[in-house]
Each structure stands twice: as C-alpha cells, then as structure tokens.
Amino acid sequence: MSTPDKQRRSFLQGAALAVTAGAVSRAGAAALPEAPLQASPATQPPLHPANGRPYQPVVTLNGWSLPWRMNNGVKEFHLVAEPVVREIAPGMKARLWGYNGQSPGPTIEVVEGDRVRIFVTNKLPEATSVHWHGQRLPNGMDGVSGLTQPAIPPGKTYVYEFTARRAGTFMYHPHADEMVQMAMGMMGFWVTHPKDPGFMRVDRDFVFLMNAYDIAPGASVPKVSTMLDFNLWTWNSRAFPGIDPLVVRQNDRVRIRVGNLTMTNHPLHLHGHEFSVTGTDGGWVPPAARWPEVTTDIAVGQMRAIEFDATEEGDWALHCHKAHHTMNAMGHDLPTMIGVDQSKVLDKITRLIPDYMAMGDKGGSMGEMEMPLPENTLPMMTGRGPYGPIEMGGMFSTVKVRKQLARDDYRDPGWYRAPAGTVARPWNGPAPSAARAPDRDEGKATLEVVKPGMQGGHQGHH
Question: What residues contact residue 239 under an 8 Å CB cut-off, 6+ apart?
Fold first, then answer.
C-alpha cells in the first residue's frame, strides 16, 4: 500500500471516532466501511452487484461506481470529500475538490427499496454537506447546511441514512458554500435501479455529468467567482480529446443519462441516430409521451435519460450544440479578422516580434497549427481522427457502434473503417451549373391594400 493510502486509512480510522450528533446514531461510530480510491481518469468497467438485489449496472464515462458492503441488510457506502488532482485531458491537470480521489466523485448505484447508509468524511479545509439531488427522503437527510443539518466540519464524519424510494437518475453535490465547492468540482452521479431488472432494460447504460471550469492558461485552480465566462466545458471533468468514446454493439439498446451542473443549458446532439427522452429528474417518461429527437436541451440542475437503438455502424459524434462548448481554453474578447488584409503591418510586427503569425483572416481553423502554449493548458481545437484534425474540444465525444462486440466489452475499438465508396471524396469532373430561381418581373407586381373595416366586395385597392 502506498504512503497516501496509509495516511488515508489512518485518517479514516481516527475519523471513525468523530461521528457526531449529526450522524444516525443506530449506524454506530465504529467500523467505518472502506473508502475506495480511484486515480485513473479512464472509464472503468461496470460494477456488477456481488450481493443485494440484482440490477444491470451503468458505465460512468471517465469514471467508476463506488463499491459498498452489506451490514444487516443495509447497503453502506463511504464518501470522502477531499482535494483531488484531475487530468482534464492529456497535457493539463487541475487541482479540484471531489470525492474518493476524483472529480466528479464515484457513481452510487442502488436498487429501489434498498436501505442505504452513506458515511461522509470531510477532508476539505472548510465545512461541507451532501445534498441527494432529486431523492425522496426524510427532511433531515436532505443535506442543506443550516436548514436540515449542521454542516460537516473539517475532520469529521457524518452519516446519511434513508430508503431509496424511487427508481431513477439523480445527483449528489454540496449545499454548503456551494458556489465555491461546486465550482471546484464537487458533484457525483446516483442511479436507483428498478426492483424489476427487466423494467426499462437496456444493453448499455452510460452516465456522466456536465460541468465547467474557468482555469487561466498555466494555472491549475479554478476561478470560483466566475458566473458565465468559463473556458473549459467538460463531461465528468474531462475535455475532448480526454473524453472516452461510448462503445456499443450494433443493434444494442443504449441509454445515456446526463446531469447538468454548469451555469447554463446544453443542447445535447447525437449524430446518425434519433433518440427518445425516456427519463427526467422526476422519473420515467410514459411511452405515449415520448417523441423522436436528435437534440435535447438539458437545463441547469436537470437530468435527462435518452435511449436509442444503435443500428448504424460507425463513429458518431455526440456533443453540446453550443459551438463555444466544443472548444477548450479560449479568449472571448478577440476581434473578427476574416477578410482583413494584414500584409501591410505584418512586416513591421515581425521586426519586433519575429515569431508573430497573422491569424484569422481566412477563418478560425487551427487544426494544423503548432503553436507554443503555456504550461498546463489545452489548445482551443484539438484531437485527430482518421482523416485529419477533428478541431473539437470541450463537450465532445463519439458513440462507436461496432458489430460483434462482447456484451461487457467497452474497450476503444479504434477508428471506424468505412466500406469503400461510402466516404465523402473530392469531385474531379466539371462542376455542375448552379440552379437558380427564375427572375420575377418587378414591374408587373401590384400591391393590394385592404382598408380597415371593409368587408366582402367593398374593398379598396391602391
């Protein structure tokens, strides 16, 4: 065991003695369950239940599910709120706050009707709490500091205990200094599976949270007072090309559950397939109330579950349809230079700044440019595909549909090899003539005006 792990275990053993009056007394102050760690930013395999009620597990994009133990019929989890280091994408790491080694924290999976006990140990420098977003539970377990409970002081462990009454898609996050704590990355996913494993069953069930950060180039700590002008738009605190693909078998029934904890809405768009919104924060959408979409808007604080049949093989884009949200760190106060002739000043500038490069006169494409960047930041548009630069960042990934995958195979299959003749290609023949609408004889146009109050044949024309 590594030294940090020894320190954590020592801390948690001591913290077991610090379960205070805010805890559920029946849980006891001794024998805290293990608090597992996860440092890898890669998508982890689904956590199949070793005990308790059966369910079809979810896959957390660039994340994992939190193991539990059974204690006299109660499912026990242990969350540790703590500072973490999260790789946003290769080449950039951020110093965030999260749970159990990551931001967002691990996904919690339970079954409708489970009695759940969650120990929360606070290793932050300030008090915190956990709100179980969307759950029906006793008021004293709702996690609003000062309103429903005392805040959890640094170094203390509190216990939340309730019954998972409603199947659905939920989140957890602080309700204590939440402007700071959520801006620092404190959030996680919660899934309550239905009692009947066959209800609304799908083949692959993905989950992720939308979050956003304002981290200056070269820095690593988010600016917590930013309201709107974020420069990193992420899924599970990862930006493309750091976001893993969603790998599915052809003809699988696929569900993607998304929660939005940013400061704005996000229209989520899927290429190549249409889907239905089958679930919201409030539960499952009745089949008669669903309709087909290719884009669904997810507002702040909302959850959405979409479903589709992955019938079309290929690498299909999945992204936020706000253009600036599929870019990485960028400035927003730049002038538009399209069509501006910079040649007259270019010589003068390069005498003073030899490495100066005229940019923007032909558009904003930067896919082939190699420019020096500050340490610990990302280019605005990045990532390469089989045909060249993808020129995307931020909230962008791919749904990779492949034939003959194993049921639990979520490994990246590489880029899709399109059959011959099915890829857009250059046209080397003569250009076809452009069709134009026939010209109208404007001289014969008449304008008819109906005077107010005139009816039937009593109309005036001028």
Answer: 88, 89, 232, 233, 328, 378, 393, 394, 395
